[in-house]
Structures are given as C-alpha cells and as structure tokens.
Design brief:
The complex is a heterodimer of chains A (460) and B (342). Chain A is an alpha+beta fold. Helix content of chain A is 33%, strand content 22%. Chain A has 3 domains: 86 residues, Uridine Diphospho-n-acetylenolpyruvylglucosamine Reductase, domain 2; 126 residues, Uridine Diphospho-n-acetylenolpyruvylglucosamine Reductase, domain 3 (2-Layer Sandwich), CATH 3.30.465; 188 residues, Vanillyl-alcohol Oxidase, Chain A, domain 3 (3-Layer(aba) Sandwich), CATH 3.40.462. Chain A has 15 helices and 19 strands. In chain A, strands 12, 13, 14, 15, 16, 17, 18 and 19 form an 8-stranded antiparallel β-sheet that branches. In chain A, strand 18 and strand 19 form a beta hairpin. The longest helix of chain A is centred in the C-terminal third of the chain and has 20 residues. Chain A starts with a helix and ends in a 14-residue tail after the last helix. By secondary structure, chain B is an alpha/beta fold. Chain B folds into 3 domains: 72 residues, no CATH class; 121 residues, 3-Layer(aba) Sandwich (Rossmann fold), CATH 3.40.50; 121 residues, Rossmann fold, CATH 3.40.50.1860. Chain B contains 16 helices and 9 strands. In chain B, helix 12 links the parallel strand 6 and strand 7. In chain B, helix 13 runs antiparallel to helix 14. The chains are: A alpha+beta (460), B alpha/beta (342). Chains A and B meet through helix 8, helix 9 and strand 15 of A and helix 7, helix 13 and helix 15 of B.
C-alpha cells in the first residue's frame, strides 16, 4: 500500500479511496471514442477542506489530479491522461441554499442536474434551472465548466452565463470565492460589478482549479409548456426562420434536428421551439405571434408546421430529452459521439450539407442536432453519429468523420465546444498568439506544477 | 396510365353547381361555380385551384358522382400548384412509404383494416369485434393513401394504390371492414374513379358497428348523454354511410346535439389547415366548431377519425367536453371501459 494511498485515506477515510483495478477501470474511460488511460487512485471527498488537502498532497507529490463530475462529456475530458488521482465529486451533492426572491441556488460541486431538478420541483415549483440534454447524473459544476447549454440557453445564454458565483480550490490549495460571494453573503453575480474572475475557471476543464460550489441563476417556471415543430426542405432558409422566431422573443428553447430515420424525418429540417406560459391565453398569444412570424414561409410553401402526434409530444417535452440515447442504439451497439462546434446560425446550411456528406463518405448513421444560443447569436451544431461498439471498423470510420468535421468547422469560423485534447491543440495553434500567451500566463501562474488535469489546455 | 373519369357534360348540365356553391371556404354563386368548374376541366387556371382548402366537401355536395375534388386535385398537380409546404408534403409521403413493417393478425376471409392508423391497435377490442378479431391488418402496405389528395398529389396514389390492392389480393380476403373511412372512400370512391379494381368487398365500420350493436342489443345500456360528432373530411367520400352515425347514436342512447356545423355543414378539425395555411384559418375553424358544440350543450365530442381526435381533443377538454372515439362510445354502451379516454 503506497504512501499516497494512505495519505488519501487519511483525508477522506479508506472507504472513499481506491486503487483497485476493477474500480480504476471505470475511471479510465468515458462513453465516447477516446482511448482509455487509468488513474492511479480515485478518491471521493466530502468537503472543500478535504479537496484542499488532496490538492496540497498532489502538489507536494507532483502527482496529477483530475476533478470529475459524472464523466459524460464524451470527449475524454476527465480521462486521466497522465494517471494520478481522479477526484470524483459525487459525494459533494448538497443543495446549500435557494434564494427564492433573488432566484439563485448554491450547490456543492458534485450536485447532479437531476437532483437539483427534483429538489426544485418539490420545494420551489415556481423556479427552474437550465437543464442540459445530458443524463440526469451530469453535474451542475461540470456542465458550467464545459460551457454546457440547456433548456434556457436560447433565452439566457450558455449555462456558464447563468453562474452567479463560485467557490474554487485553487491548484495551490487556497479556497477562493469568485464574484459577489467574495465580499457578500449573497451569490447573485459571478463577476459584475467586480472584475470577472470566473473566466479563470469556466471553460478550463478543471485545469485551473476545482470548483467546489456553484451559484446558479434560477428562472421562472411557468405552469404550461408546449412545443411546435416547423419543417422545411430547404436548409438555406433555416437561418431566416431562426431569425424570425428569435425576433419574437416569445420562445423558450429552440432546437433544429435533421436525420434520415425514421422516415417521417427524412429529407427535412425540423425547427422545434418551446412555448411557456402560466395560462392558456398566454401560450396562445405567443403561439399566434410566432406562427404569424413564419407565415411568409408557409405562403411560399417553403415551410410549415407539422402535426405532432400526441404520442410524440411527451418525449419532446421531457427534460432532459432521451432522444440521443435512442439514436445511440440505431446500430445496436450503444455508441454515440458528436462534434458540437459553436458557430453562427448563418452557417447552418453548410454544416448541414457537410454532415450529410460525411455520413455518405464514411457510411454512418447520423443526426444533426442544433441548439440556438442566446437569442440567435450563435448555435451549437451537433454532428452526431451512432456506431456499434463491437465494430472497430465502424468506430474508426466515426473517428475519421469527426476528425474531418473538426478540421472543417474551424475553416468556416466555428469554435470547438468541449474539444478533445487533439482539438484543443489545434485550437491553441490557430489562436491569436497574444491570446495564447495570456492563457499560458494564467495557467503557469495558477498551476505552476502542472498538476491540474494535465494534457488539457496545455499551452507550450 | 390511370386517369380520372370526369364527365364534362354532367357538370355542364348540373342544375345546382352545389360543389362550389355549398363550399364553406370559398364564395361562389351558381353561375360562377359552373364557370369555374368548367375552366378547371378545360385546364385553365381558376381561383379554386389556389384557394380550395381540401375539405373534400364538394365530393359530397356533388350528387351526380362526378368527383369535383379529384378533378381539382388532378389539375393542381398538373400545374404544380402546391396546397401544403413542400416539406410537409414530403413528410407525409415518407410516412406512407411501405417498409415491410406491416402487421397481420390471424387472417380470415373477413378482416378488419386498420390502414396505417396505430390508434386502432388500441381502440379495436372487446365484444364489438370478437366475431372478426384477431383477423386484422395494419401497416403502410395496406394504407389507402387517399390522404395525398390533401397535398394535390394523385401521382403517389396512382403509384401506390394498385400495389396496395395487390397486397390485399395476395391475402385472399373477401371482405374488408375499413376502420377508417378514408380507406373505405379509397376503395369505393377513388379507386373506381380511376378505374382501379378492388379485389374484395369493402365494408364501412359504421355499418359493421351498427350491425354488431344490434346483435348485442340486450347488453346495451343507453348512455343518456348529449354529444357532438366531429365529422372528418374523409367521410365526404362515403356520405352514403353518414346516416349510420345517427342510427348508432339512437341504438346506444346518445342524443346528437342539434348544431350548426353538422352533416353537410360540418367543419373540418382544422389540423390540415394549420399545416397548409397557418394560424388564422385553423384557429378560426376550430373555435367556431367548438363554440358550436359548447353552445348546444354537448357533453361528449365523439370522433370517427383518430387524426381529428388528436387535433382537437385538448381544445375540447379545455371547454369542458369529453373527447372519445365512436368505438369507445359504443363500447361504453355495452358496459366496457373506453380505451382512449383523454
């Protein structure tokens, strides 16, 4: 038994640390396509103070440390590329405070999306958070660290834009409050009116510290929620349609999907948008405005509202949606991976054509999954493929398609979202050199020993 | 090449031109109506080709069996005049494409046809059907395809319907009880109009229900409720069977409310209008229709077509009316639980 194991057991108790291969096996991989790499230890702390001690230990021993939520990013962001300690945050799952009037919640760093959703439904039925379409086990902290998106992203931006304060254990071991909590008991802002330091941690994938508490903005939860789907066969018109829909400022979430199966979806692009209201009158008012905003497309026969069968509606309205998991089994092997660049909505037509081209070139089943961000400033275009995990050739073809797409999206002005390590390297190479220099200064300054999730966002 | 049998002289000598005069969505007097129909016949453009909302009503209003709506549809397709957005038309054509995923029950000489409406897989059960079930068919391979007249596309019908007939022929069935009157209309109205041979005897399910209820008459407990009937577009293709609605309601003790939008004046559920024309027409028609149900004291709204039921159930519930399929209403009358009560 190693000294490090004993030290970790001394911090968290021996029930919450392991170096057994059967446990390390699971912490060596994620559900995507990236190759596995085993950690040396996995540890499950209960408090920020325990994390502080773990970080100090890692610094002393110059051992890598990888903070982990549910490990569902699919791009290998918590695969411990250089071994070391995986810090599994799941035991830190308390909801510390809900400020109903100021509409925010403070959660511990391992709190899951599903837990917060059910907690709010039970205790604060007039409040909601921006639920991503990830499994409920996905954590709040990990989601904001990767700039995730959710059901309120069209209205309020990336889920990370909804952060209202952070507690972070720095790589050097200090516990640091970010935003209003740095000088106030109230967690209402991650930055303004102070210098916004949250950018030192959001988007850094745990390479600059471990987020141990998150303040998250909550929003009104209306009594009624409904969905409509506008369909077109002309991808070139989709940006115009999105422009009209978002101009109304009447919608909650806006998604676009295109896929060849089932047959009812073949050859078309489906703009689905969600309406919320406290009364039927409110919903109908919004519906009428949006329908009329799209009337020109209907008159020109360029698009129309599809009739949504009642059996289909519950799955469209569920949060999170489980359609991705159904897609994952199209090839009967449970494999699913996507490249989801952030890009302007104007690029929808070319992204859509590229997806079909790659599907044909590599003989893969596909789905295009788009979420509109922040009133249409940009979108996440998910180039999604499904594959059979028992078919190495199909997995290779999927990797090749994603690599080709990855190259393509940068060329047309896209920016990688939750990039793989290889994509991070490409992004860093193509970045403005001064930006790259700034990133290096930040990283070197915060984590001089390079122990935090090494391999990710490494600027050399 | 299949072509529509439409007789110009029948139209020319028509004393009423009811096909367009009675239209609830366009306004023509008798003289204008005749002129427009003859223009359409001769291949000229007409406002009818642009404004018809595809309610199928003219197929019923024409008492001379001359198929004005099929003619309008033919001409629209020839001229490339789309009724619905291209994507919606494409979606519907894709939905009906045979993929070999049909379902067959224990096929006998007499079968129930569910067409391609999955709702019937749930609805059709109990004593009303025990003399035929489980002899049934379901799937695109037996889908009548008539719905494409909504989309000014008879080409797809001409392509698919003969194949569908062959599929029935291969089953060797003699009698087909059509659970959706679009199928019945396809086999008794559209197929003959295009000279397509139907290799079995089609039976409208209203007639089947009526006869079964008479056989089960000792078990009927009158429901003693007031109900409004949501008549679907497709029943215009088999208006000779419409009387069974009243006949069945009398058997099960349901009072059909006397309302403005009934029988020939029935309003469409509006679903197709939304896809084709947008918000205003759909919501205007649905509002007038449901107001009329409410104003005349309907406790139930019963449906013939599951698509109509899907389209307006939620709205009628919000007005305090219970939506049910006619099959469920009949099952309630013989003491069974409705399958799809909302």
């Amino acid at each position: 038994m190693s000294d490090i194991y004993n030290a970790l057991a001394g911090i968290v108790g021996e029930n919450y640390v392991s170096y057994q291969p059967e446990e390390l096996f699971f912490y060596a991989r994620d559900p995507g396509l990236m190759p596995a790499n085993s950690p040396d230890y996995v540890v499950l702390p209960k408090t920020s103070l325990e994390i502080q001690e773990i970080v100090r230990l890692a610094n002393r021993e110059k051992i890598s440390i990888v903070p982990m939520g549910a490990g569902l990013a699919l791009t290998g962001l918590v695969i411990p590329l250089k071994g070391g300690i995986v810090v599994d945050m799941k035991r830190m799952n308390k909801i510390i405070k809900v400020d109903e009037r100021a509409r925010y919640v403070i959660v511990e760093g391992g709190t899951s999306q599903g837990f917060l959703k059910s907690y709010l439904e039970k205790n604060y039925p007039r409040l909601r958070h921006s639920i991503p379409d990830a499994p409920p086990a996905a954590t709040i902290a990990s989601n904001v660290i990767i700039h995730g998106q959710g059901r309120l992203t069209q209205q309020y931006g990336f889920n990370s834009d909804m952060v209202s304060g952070l507690e972070v254990v720095l790589p050097s071991g200090e516990i640091c409050n970010i935003g209003s909590p740095s000088i106030s008991p109230d967690w209402f802002s991650k930055g303004a009116p102070l210098p916004d330091l949250s950018g030192l941690f959001l988007g850094w994938f745990g390479t600059t510290g471990i987020v141990t508490k998150v303040g998250l903005k909550l929003y009104p939860k209306k009594k009624i929620r409904d969905v409509e789907i506008f369909v077109t066969d002309n991808e070139d018109l989709v940006p115009d349609m999105i422009y009209e829909i978002t101009h109304t400022e009447m919608v909650e979430d806006v998604l676009i999907f295109s896929q060849p199966l089932p047959m009812m979806f073949k050859d078309n692009h489906h703009v689905s948008f969600y309406l919320t209201g406290d009364t039927d009158e409110e919903i109908e008012f919004k519906r009428k405005i949006i329908w009329n905003a799209l009337d020109g497309f209907i008159r020109n026969k360029d698009g129309g509202f599809m009739s949504i069968p009642p059996a289909m509606k519950p799955s469209l309205l569920e949060m999170p949606q489980t359609s991705a998991s159904r897609l994952a089994d199209v090839k009967k092997g449970g494999g699913f991976e996507y490249s989801g660049p952030i890009i302007t909505v104007e690029k929808y037509p070319e992204c859509s054509r590229k997806l079909v081209e790659m599907s044909s070139k590599y003989n893969l089943a596909y789905s295009g999954m788009v979420r509109i961000i922040d009133g249409g400033h940009c979108m996440m275009f998910g180039f999604a493929f499904t594959f059979n995990r028992a078919d190495p050739d199909m997995m290779d073809r999927t990797r090749n398609a994603l690599e080709e797409i990855s190259e393509y999206v940068l060329k047309i002005g896209g920016v990688y979202w939750k990039p793989t390590v290889a994509e991070q390297k490409v992004a860093i190479e193509r970045m403005d050199p001064n930006t790259r220099y700034l990133m290096k200064m930040i990283k070197d300054s915060l984590d001089p020993n390079g122990i935090m999730n090494p391999g990710n966002w490494e600027v050399n | 090449m299949l072509s529509l049998k439409f007789d110009e002289d029948t139209c020319k000598t028509c004393p009423t031109s009811d096909c367009l005069v009675k239209c609830q969505y366009m306004d023509f007097n008798k003289t204008e109506a005749k002129v427009e129909m003859l223009k359409i016949f001769s291949g000229e453009d007409s406002p009818v080709l642009h404004d018809c909302v595809t309610c199928y009503g003219c197929e019923e209003y024409c008492k001379r069996g001359n198929h004005p709506f099929y003619l309008i549809t033919e001409r629209r397709q020839e001229k490339g005049i789309l009724t619905a957005p291209r994507a919606i038309t494409r979606q519907w054509i894709n939905i009906g494409e045979p993929l070999g995923k049909y379902r067959l029950g224990d096929i006998k000489k007499k079968i129930l046809s569910f067409g391609f409406m999955p709702e019937f897989l749930k609805l059709v059960k109990g004593r009303l059907f025990e003399d035929v079930m489980p002899s049934y068919i379901f799937g695109q391979e037996f889908f009548c395809n008539v719905v494409y007249i909504h989309f000014s596309n008879t080409a797809i019908i001409k392509e698919r319907l003969p194949v569908i007939m062959d599929n029935f022929r291969k089953l060797g069935v003699e009698e087909v009880v059509c659970m959706h009157d679009e199928c019945y209309g396809s086999f008794t109205s559209l197929a003959p109009a295009y000279g397509i041979e139907v290799p079995f005897k089609p039976i409208h399910y209203f007639e089947y229900l009526y006869n079964r209820l008479k056989e089960l008459s000792d078990d009927i407990r009158p429901l003693n409720v007031k109900a409004a009937y949501q008549r679907p577009c497709s029943s215009r293709l088999s208006s000779d069977k419409h009387h069974f609605v009243r006949d069945i309601m009398e058997l099960i003790g349901v009072e059909l409310v006397d309302r403005r939008y009934k029988d020939e004046n029935a309003l469409c559920c509006g679903d197709i209008f939304g896809m084709m024309s947008g918000y205003e027409l759909k919501n205007d028609v649905q509002k007038r229709n449901i107001d009329d149900m409410v104003d005349n004291g309907a406790e139930y709204c019963f449906f013939n077509c599951p698509a109509c039921q899907n389209a307006i159930s939620e709205k009628v519930i919000k007005r305090g009316i219970k939506p049910l399929h006619i099959i469920d209403l009949c099952r309630m009358a013989i003491g069974e639980e409705p399958e799809m009560e909302v």
